[in-house]
Amino acid sequence: MALQACARALYRGSRHGLRLSPRVSSFVLSPTLVRGHRLGPADDELYQRTTVTLMRGEKDGGAMIQSYSPTGFNIDGNRVIGPCAVIPPAILQWNVGSHKDITIESLALFYMLEPRIEVLVLGTGGRMERLDPEVMAFLKKKGISVEVQATEHACATFNFLSSERRITAAGLIPPPPPANPELV
Predict the structure, then answer these.
(1) Which residue(s) pair with 81 in the sheet?
(2) Residue 98, Cβ neighbours under 10 Å: how many?
(3) Which residues make Cβ contacts (< 8 Å) with residue 140, sequence separation at least 6?
(4) How many CB atoms neighbour CB 46 within 10 A?
(5) What is the pLDDT of residues 70-87, one digit of tens each?
(6) Fewest Cβ atoms closer than 10 Å to its Cβ: which of 61, 77, 136, 158?
(7) 148 and 129 in contact (C-beta within 8 Å)?
(8) What pLDDT, on the 0 to 100 scale, is given for residue 28?
(9) What pLDDT, on a 0 to 100 scale, did the predictor assign at position 112?
(10) CA-CA distance, 113 to 128, in Å (whole number)?
(11) Half-sphere exposure of 13 toward its Cβ, with a 13 Å CA cutoff?
(12) pLDDT at position 12, please?
């Protein structure tokens, strides 16, 4: 009963002349635009309560690697288990087990992207490992600069290049667990 009375009261109108009805009024379909009116303290009781939201003119710097461990990575709050490919705005599982598995085929994901990436950062685990020279020559022919580093340094390099708004991707292999866990 109370709900019906409330619905009837709203349908009849309110003190501001607004009313709810099943029909769409012409006011909703074609509002009158007035540009010269500015709100003053008398127009709105919330006039003095102002909040500011920071608006960024430029797009964010891209994905950031927040941490890494022997099990995986934390990238922008997303937990990734095992090796991963970071291609902003995507984070993908990367099917490699060690630096020996990094081949032209395993890197196809990186050189087939549009727009073409400028720098590919490869983290090869606990230490920097040499990659097959054919793989390096192939990526150079594709116009992609490659940084091969230990995963620890590769994460920092990727974050730095992303913050500079460079078109950057990363292929990361988690570092091995420490030999003596008590020292960590």
Answers:
(1) 72
(2) 12
(3) 146
(4) 8
(5) 999 999 888 999 999 998
(6) 77
(7) yes
(8) 44
(9) 86
(10) 25
(11) 4
(12) 46
φ/ψ of 91, rounded to 5, equals -125, 120
**φ and ψ at residue 48, rounded to 5 degrees:** -80, -15
Give the C-alpha distances (Å, rounded to integers) separating 172 from 59, 81, 114, 152, 166.
24, 11, 21, 10, 18
Let me know: does 77 contact 183? Beta carbons within 8 Å: no
Identify the pLDDT of residue 154. 96
pLDDT (tens digit, 9 = 90+) per residue, 20-47?
445 544 444 444 444 555 555 555 554 4
Cα(48)–Cα(40) distance, rounded to whole angstroms?
Answer: 10
- Three-class SS of residue 172? strand
Per-position DSSP letters for 44-109, written without gaps between them: -TTTT--------SS------EEEEETTEEEETTEEEESSEEEETTEEEE---SSGGG--TTTTHH
Q: What are phi and psi of 165, to 5 degrees?
A: 65, 35
d(CA 111, CA 104): 9
Taking the chain (184 residues) in runs of 10, the rounded mean pLDDT of each run is 44 46 47 51 50 44 87 91 89 91 91 87 93 93 94 95 91 88 57
